Amino acid sequence: MSKVRIDKWIWSVRIFKSRTLASDACKAGKVRVDGEPVKPSYMVSEGEVVSVKKEGFTFQFRVVQLIEKRVGAPVAVTCYEDITPVEEKNKYNDWFLNGTPANEKRERGTGRPTKKERRDMEEFKGG
Q: Residues 5, 33: contact at Cβ < 8 Å?
């Protein structure tokens, strides 16, 4: 096997939960191979760099092994090399562990924001 569809590969190595999500991400331009946006039918080969924009974060992977069928997580991690920049990983870990961006914390015990406070926060953030 010298090439595999990009949507199959990113689903097989468990970057997306379903092949439909993988395909939709390709169609939306969130998947790039060597810097170029690709369609779901793009045939990826070993050694190429795949960038995936997911939940506001950009992850980068180098294709090490091509697979078409979804496999268990321990096998999946051997099929790619994670080359995501350190600052992007740190940003993701902060978000994943805290659930919110670091600058959006409220004092403990103050409760939910009022309608006015929420509007002021949205205006401040440019929303």
A: no
Alpha carbon of 73 to those of 1, 14, 17, 36: distances in Å? 21, 7, 12, 27
The structure tokens 């793009």 sit at: 42
According to DSSP, the residues that pair with 63 across neighbouring strands are 80
Domain ranges of the chain: 4-104
Give residue-wise pLDDT tens across range 22-32.
999 999 999 99
User: For the whole model, what pTM was predicted?
Assistant: 0.71
Q: How is domain 4-104 classified at the CATH fold level?
A: 3.10.290
**Are the C-beta atoms of 67 and 4 separated by less than 8 Å?**
yes
β-sheet bridge partners, residue 54: 57
Q: Of the candidates 124, 42, 73, 8, which has an alpha carbon nearest to the alpha carbon of residue 34?
A: 42
First to last CA, the chain: 48
Helix (H), strand (E) at residue 10: helix 6-12
Segment 89-104, tens digit of pLDDT: 788 777 777 655 555 6
User: Per the structure block, which two tokens stand in for 97?
Assistant: 């562990």
